[in-house]
Amino acid sequence: MERIHTQKLIGGRRTAPAGHVLIIGLITLGLATLLNAASLLKTAERQPYDSPIRGLTVGIMKPIAEVSDFLQLDRPRELVEMVVGRDTGDEPPAQEDEPPAQEEDATVPTTTTTVPTTTTTAATGLREITAADPLVLYVTGDSFVEMVGDAFINDTTGISVVEVVSEDQTDWDFFRALTRPDSFDTPGFWQERIPEVEPDAAVVFYGGNDGQPIVWNGEYLEPDTEPWLEAYGVLVGEAMDTLVDSGVTRVYWMGMPIMSDNLFTQRVLGFNEVYAEQAAQRPEVVYIDVFYLFADENGEYTRYLRDENGNLVNMRASDGNHYDWPGAYLLTEYVLDIIAEEWGFTDQF
Amino acid sequence: MLFPTVQFATFMVVVFLGNWLLMQHPIRWRWFILAASYFFYGFWDWRFTFLLAGVTVVNQFAATRIAAARTQAGRRFALTAALVASLGVLAFFKYYGFLVTSVANTLNSFGVEANLPLLEIILPVGISFFTFQAMSYVIDVYREKLAPGTWLDVAVYLAFFPQLVAGPIVRGTEFLPQLHPPRDPRHLDSSRAFYLIFIGLAKKIVIADFIASTLVDPVFASPGLHNGLEILFAVYGFAVQIYADFSAYSDIAIGVALILGFRFPENFNAPYTATSIRDFWRRWHMTLSRWLRDYLYIGLGGSRRGRLLTYRNLMLTMLLGGLWHGAAWKFVVWGGLHGLWLALERAVTDRRRDRGIAPLPSTPLLRALQRLGTFHLVCLAWVFFRADSLSTAFSMIGRIFTAFEMSAPILTPAVLLAIAVGIAAQYVPRPSVEQALALFSRLRPALQGVALAFTLMVIDALGPQGVAAFIYFQF
Question: What is the three-class DSSP state of B470?
């Protein structure tokens, strides 16, 4: 106590020696880690399997989460979340050392080197849409939905026979990847969500985060390899089937655009082949290729394209890959043309 | 590396230890902090550390040339060269695309299709901040307000990680003198530092990100789907969001610097309590306002050359201040509106003075009306700042009046509470905060740690999953 009394005052506040500040900081971080252990473990587990710090952080956080659970130190956070009525969707800490391995499908599709093109299967069996009973279009996926979802909503406001559903960060989110069902179970989510939305058609964007190793029958498959592409094809096929089995009449599976980075561009070409191939096997699924929609006249990447007035417009977000508003609208209009053709509302534009 | 992350917390523990263990070894301390700062900056993209180093070398070289020059012409040449280099870097990385597309589109409107070279340029995080600091340093040396520092000191000053990517814009005259006496490890103003860091985290995670994701982003993305009342509250929401977001970064930066023994200037002082636009700019992004005033407005002549030129200077300063925020016409309009209001306020004051009209007595009612008016003028300008285009901004303003309805499903009680807290918090008297901090500082270290840990838990539990980047990183 005596030592405290000798401390200097600044504006009525007692100063503290660096050692005390370090102790305060360590207690804060240590206790906060215990109080937030379940959430931190989930964050650690979301990192790509090949991330050098994933193993370390999961290895550290798993026992801490168990201690926190044993000491019931996770209860205050649960209480706070309950009080504010928050459903984080957090699950209990994973018990396994590795994420659950995928069940390998009996019929693994093989990839080919065909150039992706938009698959426009003739529309058959689509119901008639009216203003009273409009086409419910569900836009879902990863970060590439950002802005695009809103562009769909905005572009269809004057179209009485279409209603778009794409709730911000409910039906899409930045971290979603088909290759990481342990982080976010997309098919499981759709199985719950589709009966709520009851869409006739879905526009699906995936691929932004999919370039991660896949755990397949306990084996790590590196992206861009033949086994990885085969496994990815199974995951994409399962996702398509989930939508169709849940009652979606038409699935518009979006290809990835050309990217600013050559390696990423090569990767998305592989993705697009997988999408085209899987779509071709399912009459309810249409693959929409937009790779060259965002390329210049030489087929090269460009951030800027000319609009209908001949003005140069920036299409891509600051990372060079995601869509900025003009890019989102360019894409949306392109896709809506295809959808309008199929569902017969071209006269509403 | 974002402040509200586990990576930064880990980084900070290491830096804190190194900072105080090496305090008695000034040279080693400088190299340690420099390395830590470059690591922090390189965490985004290591290639841009060379840009930071380049800006440092060029400006320090110019500063030493200015100090060594025997003639005024030589001094001016070195200053001009440094400013051209700094502005050139800024123009290339930040404004190249904007300039080229603006020229091409202007030519296109005259029927000329110009194929100007378009480059794929990534905007380095914080470039506007560290180039402005570098320019202030060289100008202060030129104006003989500051002697050139050593190469190592200036490198530490320009790279010092707390303020590197989003301010406050700390001047050499404020930072460099703090490098000389070793900071005293026995007397850290830790309660204030912790307060700033935690209030910053709360503002960013609980207020800013929540309002953005639940109100501002959806309404600004699809204003046509929202009625006037929703748009009006989305504008209020954005006013709170941008304040909470940006002042959060400043608070954390100032707190982190304080815990390392450095005092940074204040950057925000309850801006929505301002009673005029002039008052607002004394409270909002204060270090940028000072920079613009001292290095641009006064450089243009300030108020010394007659009234019309004063109004012109105010307008030019704010137009360029707007452009500093981003390479888009909407930012120019935002700056232009503030310039216009500043000039109008000035003109009214001048006119009243000419006519010998005494200032209005400052009553609570008048102050409340002035605050309300100022807040709404600021909000009007925020519409242009936040909307994706000028046409969207005009459309939103129009809808506030033409599509007004007394129902607003998007306005949940939680959103309204967040907006109300964001505004009301600015009216909390400072002495109350100081008293609370004084009480906190008297707690034993273990109790302080427990209190802070529970605060951190609540902040994290109330925030959305993941943390959005700070708005001002893009500037």
Answer: coil
CB contact under 8 A, A303 and B118: yes
Write the residue in A16, A150, A303 that is nearest to B120 by C-beta: A303
Q: Which of A14, A43, A314 sits opposite B441 (nearest CB)?
A: A14
ipTM: 0.81
Which of A1, A4, A6, A31 is the best substitution to test chain B (most B C-beta atoms within 10 A)?
A: A31
**CATH code, residues A135-348:** 3.40.50.1110
Return per-residue pLDDT of chain B as tens, 475 residues: 777 778 888 899 999 999 999 988 999 999 999 999 999 999 888 889 999 999 999 999 999 999 999 899 999 999 999 999 999 998 898 888 888 888 888 888 888 877 777 777 777 888 989 999 999 999 999 999 999 999 999 999 999 999 988 879 999 999 999 998 878 888 899 999 999 999 999 999 899 989 998 899 889 988 888 899 999 999 999 999 999 999 999 999 999 999 999 999 999 999 999 999 999 999 999 999 999 999 999 989 888 888 999 999 999 999 999 988 888 889 999 999 999 999 999 999 999 888 888 888 889 999 999 999 999 999 999 999 999 888 899 999 999 999 888 888 888 898 999 999 999 999 988 888 899 999 999 999 999 999 999 999 999 888 776 555 555 555 5
Chain centroid offset of residue A163 CA = 22
Which residue in chain B has the smallest CA separation from A8? Answer: B187
Instruction: Check if B285 is active-site.
Output: no
- pTM (two decimals): 0.82
Domain extent listing, chain A: 11-84, 135-348
CB proximity A264 to B under 8 Å: no
C-beta atoms surrounding B367 within 10 Å: 12
* CA dist., res. A271 & res. B208, Å (int): 36
Q: Torsion angle, CA of B215/B220/B221/B223, rounded to 10 degrees?
A: 100
Residue from the list A80, A154, A260 with its beta carbon closest to the beta carbon of B458? A80
Residue A141 near residue A205 (C-beta atoms within 8 A) = yes
Distance between CA atoms of A336 and A35, rounded to whole angstroms?
48
A260 at interface of B, judged by CB pairs closer than 8 A: yes
Any CB–CB contact under 8 A between B70 and chain A?
no
